[in-house]
Design a protein that fits this description.
- The complex is a heterodimer of chains A (796) and B (285).
- With 796 residues, chain A is of the alpha+beta class.
- In chain A, a hairpin with a 2-residue loop joins β32 and β33.
- Chain B folds into three domains: 46 residues, Uridine Diphospho-n-acetylenolpyruvylglucosamine Reductase, domain 2; 116 residues, Uridine Diphospho-n-acetylenolpyruvylglucosamine Reductase, domain 3; 101 residues, Enolase-like, domain 1.
- A five-stranded antiparallel beta sheet of chain B has the order 4-5-10-6-7. A three-stranded parallel beta sheet of chain B has the order 1-3-2, with helices on one face.
- Classes of the chains: A alpha+beta (796), B alpha+beta (285).
- At the A-B interface, α20 of A face α12 of B.
């Protein structure tokens, strides 16, 4: 089929004015291939697709959290000027259901409304203005139903049901797990602390809101260009929901303008597909506005967490208990998987012999909880790392020392009993922190606080699993081609949503084939051109695809060298080497250009593919089948330790993060610049989470509908972040790497909270730490009133 | 947003003609407040008149004892202007924390005044400076104190066919404390949750000889409290003096609860912000 309007066939490196003309190598700061095009506005994102004869599609949303749909009247809407058609669930020929594990989200709502953002009708119009007018003319007859908005209330016996057909009621997933003697170990502890923590929603707030472009061609093939992390999964979901053959659906995935998990799954895709089936062959565009993205997009799950942590007097951890409630909203947008990862990380990166975990992902009529960088781990890390600081305080042990005493090492068992077989560098990270001036000089720094300022220093230890766990195959299929022009073209199966993995792919293939960026080309994910390689998620992209890519690049290299050896009459391929643009015989100095080689090779020889499937845990753990299905346990983890220095204003409660250090064990560093960017971005997002991102929801309705009310950090709010890589070779990783995409986002909430507690002697149990919360907390503490913050109790 | 006519008059005479021909138009300069409301649909004027090309009401004019600031002067221009920095450091301090560089590049001082948000960053400094505003129409030019012009959130005494053309501020002579503090929920692009502008004349021994104070975001308009100013006058600028005035401030501001902060928080902070002034007793921060 022809390519959709404006979709470029391949992306070459001839865009950077600052040419990087050395052969690519591992561990070097190769400029990102996407940087120049992105900063100059030349990169074509999904939002940039228009084309002649364009149709605009948009959605009428419910606006109420829970209701029975009695009727949808589209008469006035259809008669409005510029309207092409208006569709409801009756026009959906397939299952009309989307989702990853439990397919419970309608494309267009049929029997009832389950949250304010539910799509009721899809309207196609000649232009944006007509579309907006027409959408306001959709008349909905909605019979309100009592809603559930609190996860714990939702689990009560007589709570209204979000999905009447779900056997578990409002509990989308319940997870329970015990290690050692579980709760019985509480009695054996010499100190036992309790804590309750509530974390808020977090909005992804990507620059590019959910968007896409679609067109059906004469042969019936449906092409969808969209901002997505999951093109191959989207193809199956769209086909199933709309009743199409997956082969007739093509998903093309340009670089998303940010995603962070919010595009891990279908957003506009099925709606666009449906629209394109009703546009008479015209191209269709859908682009959610910011307010619509806030209402209909997914969020980080708000969590309510109850903890008990027990230890011996010497600081050896003995027992941990956690009870977690994750508000997943009305649909299983990976909510069960998020909960499962939270449970797996709920005990932190520590050796704890006795653990009792219980968690619930709960259906409510609130906004949809879904994937977000860290994927359940930021919440529990926030809780357990504050518990660790409380314990250090109680035992008068240095917080870093307490963590070192209990830190997981290779061969230890994790909180869920998984034996750690991959590289485990937490101790090395803690060691760097313990010797860093932010930590060693903290008393001196604190005592230099100015008038009305209180200073505090806090730290946290973090871990993050990567990959899909033991059941869902975590695979990639790499494809590398020697083009007819003699260039090396890498077909990326995994989306680069900004992490930089597309550039890393070129670096990996280029280093194996000894080429410069000039000789490299890139094809971004496209279900018709690149090979299925899973989602851009779970800190897996460079690990899984990179391993596949090494295989493909090595294969192509062998083929080129072997053929060249034959042509140059060399004894064997060993006597030849690839150099930029050419093959050289080392003994004779004779050369062949890669262009020449390409012409001498058959089409089938010029393409090499390689499949890789990530190793999984082999442990036989007493983990329930549904937790295994949802990903427990993992086998590969990254680690880190963070320190921050904060200043709290006594007059306003404003918390200013003055310094931040993140030390990370994510294996070998392929590109120090991309690595740093991942750490910096993760920390910045984590700082927003702890300090200001306060997404409000009341009775299912969003109370912070835009960026004027939902605040994210601006440039002056983020200080320079120091990133130190503890490079420990991971033997299963490509060139020794592990995932770096998510881990940093787990550190700031506990590190800043611990620093604030250090500064003002108050521990907070609700987040974010807005100036008001901090000021009121300090006043309450000063007035000696019964603290409304967490209760610190010792049972012995 | 639906398409609509936008007029860009280049002289005041053109402007008066346009306003007569299109009386339902809304007038704007930078548009940094207006466009937010247009986009949200809370206003839907049939046409717009933009003042940004009216050179007659742009820029800063030295009038000897006074400085005249044209209404369509951008915050960025004003912040970089040597006369602002020389004569009105308090205004410069507020401009420096107003929104962000792009908004300062577009937004104007006239817009900040006419928008009349209690959170408008230039307003508390202009109140303590006793700024006088100039309102013009085809027929007349009238002047009045800024504090009389603004009578509620978004409410100003501007008649049909009138526009704000400028602000006249008396140059400072003896004041040696120019303080502006904005409490926002982040550093950049923040809307004030509370703010305090303070203009003081301090004796070498730290006694307050004259005090002008104005609070933002703790009432329907900027709040000035003469009783606090009087109570401060003649006193040493000490922690105890300032602390003693906190209850008076708390009792006399009338903040609201909104998504950014509770009224209680604003009330507490409005009082406590006074304490920051003690740093000037020994020569400033």
């Amino acid at each position: 089929m022809r390519h959709p309007a404006g979709h470029k066939d391949s992306r070459t490196s001839k865009r950077s004015p600052d040419r990087y003309d050395r052969p690519l190598s591992i561990g070097t700061r190769v400029p990102r291939i996407d940087a120049y095009a992105k900063v100059t506005g030349r990169e074509k994102f999904a939002a940039d697709y228009y084309g002649d004869d364009l149709v605009w599609a948009g959605v009428k949303r419910a606006g109420v959290p829970h209701a029975r749909i009695e009727g949808i009247d589209l008469k006035r809407c259809r008669e409005a000027p510029g309207v092409i058609c208006a569709l409801t669930h009756e026009h959906v020929a397939g299952t009309n259901r989307q989702g990853v594990i439990r397919k419970d989200q309608p494309v267009l709502a049929d029997d009832k409304v389950r949250h304010c953002g539910d799509a009721i009708a899809l309207v196609l119009a000649e232009d944006k203005e007509s579309l907006e007018r027409a959408l306001s003319m959709v008349s909905m007859d909605l019979e309100p139903m009592p809603g559930v908005f609190d996860p714990e209330e939702a689990l009560e016996e007589n709570a209204p049901l979000v999905h009447e057909d779900h056997p578990g009621g409002n509990a989308l997933l319940k997870g329970e797990l015990q290690k050692g003697i579980g709760q019985a170990a509480a009695a054996e502890c010499e100190v036992l602390l309790e804590g309750c923590f509530e974390t808020s929603y977090q909005e992804h707030a990507y620059l590019e809101t959910e968007c896409g472009w679609a067109q059906q061609d004469e042969e019936g093939k449906l092409a969808i260009v969209c901002s997505t992390q999951t093109p191959f999964r989207d193809r199956m979901e769209v086909a199933e929901a709309l009743g199409l053959d997956p082969v007739s659906v093509r998903i093309i995935a340009p670089y998303p303008g940010g995603a962070f998990g919010g595009k891990d799954g279908v957003t506009v895709q099925t709606l666009l597909g449906l629209a394109a089936l009703h546009s008479g062959g015209r191209p269709v565009k859908m682009w959610w506005g910011r307010e619509e993205s806030f209402v209909a997009g997914t969020k980080r799950h708000p969590a309510s967490m109850r903890y008990r942590l027990g230890a011996k007097w010497d600081g050896a951890l003995h027992f941990l208990e956690a009870k977690l409630f994750f508000d997943t909203g009305p649909y299983d947008h990976l909510g069960g998987v998020v909960l499962t990862l939270a449970l797996e990380h709920a005990s932190g990166p520590y050796r704890i012999p006795n653990v009792k975990l219980e968690g619930y992902a709960v259906y409510t009529n609130n906004p949809v909880g879904g994937a977000f960088r860290g994927f359940g781990v930021p919440q529990v890390t926030g809780a357990v790392e504050q518990m660790m600081d409380m314990l250090a305080h109680r035992l008068s042990i240095d917080p870093v020392e307490l963590r070192m005493k209990n830190a997981l090492r290779r061969g230890d068992r994790s909180g869920v009993g998984k034996t750690l077989v991959s590289s485990t560098g937490l101790m090395e990270c803690l060691d760097v922190v313990s010797k860093h001036p932010f930590w060693t000089d903290r008393d001196e720094w604190k005592s230099a606080a100015g008038p009305f300022k209180r200073r505090g220093v806090g730290m946290s230890a973090v871990m993050q699993a990567s990959g899909y766990g033991p059941v869902v195959p975590d695979y990639a299929n790499a494809k590398v081609e020697l083009t007819q022009e003699g260039k090396i073209r890498v077909y990326c199966g995994v989306v680069d949503m900004g992490q930089g993995n597309a550039s890393t792919n070129l670096q990996i293939a280029g280093s194996i084939l000894a080429q410069t960026l000039e000789e490299m080309e890139l094809v971004l994910p496209d279900t018709d051109r690149t090979l299925p390689s899973g989602s851009a998620s779970a800190s897996r992209c460079s690990y899984t695809f990179g391993n596949a890519l090494i295989g493909a690049a090595e294969t192509l290299k062998r083929r080129i060298l072997q053929r060249a050896a034959d042509l140059l009459m060399a004894q064997s391929a060993d006597q030849l080497a690839l150099v930029p643009g050419r093959v050289r015989c080392l003994g004779t100095g004779r050369e062949l250009s890669l262009e020449r080689m390409a012409r001498l090779m058959d089409e089938t020889e010029r393409v090499a593919v390689h499949h890789f499937r990530a190793p999984v845990a082999l442990d036989k753990l007493a983990v329930a089948d549904d937790l295994r299905l949802h990903g427990m346990p993992h086998t590969l983890f990254s680690y880190g330790a963070h320190v921050t220095r904060v200043e709290v204003d006594e007059l306003t409660g404003y918390v200013e993060v003055k310094d931040y250090l993140a030390v990370s064990d994510c294996g070998t560093v392929i590109n120090p610049q991309i690595y740093e960017q991942q750490i910096h971005g993760g920390v910045a997002q984590g700082l927003g989470y702890v300090l200001m991102e306060d997404f409000r929801v009341t009775e299912g309705a969003v109370g912070t509908p835009n960026f004027a009310t939902y605040l994210i950090p601006t440039a002056p709010d983020i200080q320079d972040i120091e990133s130190i890589a503890v490079e420990i070779h991971e033997h299963t990783g490509p060139f020794g790497l592990k995932g770096v995409g998510e881990i940093a986002t787990n550190g700031p909430l506990p590190a800043v909270s611990n620093a604030v507690a250090d500064a003002c002697g108050v521990r907070f149990d609700r987040f974010p730490l807005t100036p008001e919360r901090v000021l009121m907390g300090m006043r309450t503490a000063e007035h000696g009133k019964e603290s409304r913050e967490y209760q610190l109790q010792t049972e012995r | 947003m639906p398409l609509r006519d936008v007029f860009l008059p280049r002289t005041l005479d053109d402007l008066w003609d346009t306003l007569e021909q299109r009386p339902e138009s809304m007038v704007y300069a930078g548009g940094t407040d207006l466009f937010v409301r247009l986009r949200s649909g809370s206003i839907a004027p049939p046409s717009l008149v933009c003042l940004e090309r009216l050179n007659e009401i742009k820029g800063v004019r030295d009038e000897g004892e006074f400085l005249f600031i044209g209404a369509a002067t951008t915050h960025g221009f004003l912040l970089a202007h040597p006369l602002t920095v020389e004569h009105f450091p308090i205004l410069a301090k507020a401009l420096a924390v107003l929104a962000s560089p792009p908004v300062r590049h577009m937004g104007t001082i006239g817009g900040n005044i006419v928008n009349a948000s209690p959170a408008g960053d230039t307003l508390p400094p202009l109140y303590v400076l006793d700024a006088e505003i100039e309102i013009s129409s085809r027929r007349e030019v009238r002047r009045m104190p800024l504090a009389d012009f603004i009578f509620g959130p978004g409410e100003v005494l501007l008649g049909k066919g009138e526009i704000l053309t400028g602000v006249r501020v008396k140059k400072l002579t003896n004041e040696n404390v120019h303080h502006y503090e904005k409490v926002g929920l982040r550093k950049g692009q923040a809307c004030a949750v509370a703010s305090l502008a303070a203009l003081l004349r301090l004796s070498p021994s730290g006694v307050v000889e004259e005090a002008r104070l104005a609070w933002g975001s703790v009432g329907p308009t900027v709040v000035t409290l003469t009783e606090v100013e009087h109570a401060l006058t003649g006193e040493v600028l000490s922690h105890d003096t300032l602390k003693g005035l906190i209850p008076l401030v708390r009792d006399n501001v009338s903040p609201i609860d909104d998504v950014r902060a509770s009224a209680e928080y604003r009330r507490i902070v409005a009082g406590q912000l006074l304490l920051r002034l003690q740093q000037y007793r020994w020569g400033g921060p």
